[in-house]
Amino acid sequence: MAKIAVIGAGSWGTALTHCLSGNGHDVAVWSVDPDEVDMINRFHEQKVKLPGVILGEGVRATTKLEEAVSDRDALVLAVPSPFTRSTARRMAPLCRYGQLIISVAKGLEEDSLMTLSSIIQEEIPHCETAVLCGPTHAEEVGKCLPTAIVAGAERRHVAEYVQSLFMNEYLRVYTSPDVRGMEIGAALKNVVALAAGVADGLGCGDNTKAALITRGIAEIKRIGTAAGGQAETFSGLTGIGDLIVTCASMHSRNRRAGILIGQGLTPDQAMQEVKQVVEGVYSAKAGMQLAQKYGQDAPIIAACNEVLFGDKSPREAVMALMNRDPRAEVTKLEWKAL
Which DSSP state fits 235? Predict the structure, then answer.
């Protein structure tokens, strides 16, 4: 049994708390919101963000970060990506040397273009870091539906330790050393999922969705490999797998926000309607900047930025994508000689 703290009591943090507690670990939960803490301690349930998932009797929540962090074998950092740096900065003086921090959010920092694990390493250099990501909606993990995910770390024994913490009969955990590729794929797929939602909101069909998913993963792979990720990663769970589930499911807050934007709401109105952090909105600018930094073509991510932050309507963005100059689908294949 390990002693673990989950930092963040949103839907994903709650689902992972349920998993870890069910695996027999001693789990504490931290939230900045006293109402969330009271809810979890009284009802053993996150009634607002993950209703119906009942946490173990031994799970306790607190608003005191020091109480949550101290004397824990591992810390699961599950706050939304825009708050990763500020939360890590608060945690830094409380963490002991070598303490493991597992980043489970998805995103890129807009100004620095840093991945979340890199932010944690910068703010808490005396800690060990790992990541956990893949096609994993909290609603389904909370219901113990069969799911696969990837534990990433630069050192094998760290990834395998994370694997041992989470793996059970319904959550199959793989390992990977390609932390950078995993995190870039996890962040950029949220932007493509926004585009998929916009297409749904406009009334486009399955053909459109298939095109967005396949051309979207091509875009993500180009950027991700140029930025240091491994090509194989983008064909796996944290690449195409995560993209499929985020583009296709109504559990996806990115897709839901995109649908609302396609139906005529502004991005701000859509986020208010979804009532949760829409990570793709925060990653869109960073994704475009990353593509430009490495000289990669990113038409879908560019279109998302034009809709989110420019003056282009969703329908105009779709037409602009469809009317781009003709090109081959795969550029490295050779044609038969005349």
Answer: G
